[in-house]
Amino acid sequence: MRLAAIITIKTNAIVLALTSLMGTIPVRDLGPAMQALKVPDKLCHMLVFTHRYAVLIRQELTHMLQAARARGFRPRTTLHTYRTYAWVAGMLLVRSWDRAERVRDAMLCRGFSGRFHTLAEFRRSGIDTAFLLCSIAAAIFIIYLEVIWRLT
């Protein structure tokens, strides 16, 4: 139980830290910023496109379920309900695949070469350096506490 609690606390701390850091940058600037930090291009693409298309897939799912309700569908524990949900999942997969192909073709037509281009400039300032140093100091302190805690 103690180990599970530690893992849960650490995981939540990591998610909260990443959310607070990533929540301050607009999504359109996320890809170019990560590329400026020399993050591998494929990882940049995966993160930016996952964010963008997770929202679109959610909207598509909402529209499909709304259409089913407009046709009188009410979820129950019947075979009809299970078939309907299977149909919705299948159609969502097909529509997502079709959209992905159209987006890929559109990107190729626009000359996408694997790099994000933006008009935003990413420059490091004194505040950024101070934040980085504070973050490193906090990480070292947490590691120190972890080592001391394990020794006792």
What features would you describe in this structure?
The structure is a single chain. By secondary structure, the protein is mainly alpha-helical. It folds into 2 domains: 2-116, no CATH class; 122-152. It contains 5 helices and no strands. It has helices at residues 2-22, 27-36, 41-70, 79-109, 126-151. Helix 2 (27-36) packs antiparallel against helix 3 (41-70) and helix 3 (41-70) packs across helix 4 (79-109). The radius of gyration is 22 Å and the shape is flat. It starts with a helix and ends with a helix.
Count of individual beta strands: 0
- Overall residue-averaged pLDDT value: 85
- The total tally of domains equals 2
Q: Could you give the order of the helices and strands?
A: HHHHH
Low-confidence stretches: none
Shape: flat
Number of helices: 5
Spatial gap, N to C terminus: 19 Å
Largest sheet descriptor: none
Q: What is the share of helical residues?
A: over 70%
Q: What class do helices, strands and sheet pairing give?
A: mainly alpha
Radius of gyration: 22 Å
Percentage of residues in DSSP E strands = under 5%
Short recap of the structure:
The protein has 152 residues and is mainly alpha-helical. It contains 5 helices and no strands.
Per-chain topology:
Elements: H1 2-22, H2 27-36, H3 41-70, H4 79-109, H5 126-151
Helix pairs in contact: 2-3, 3-4
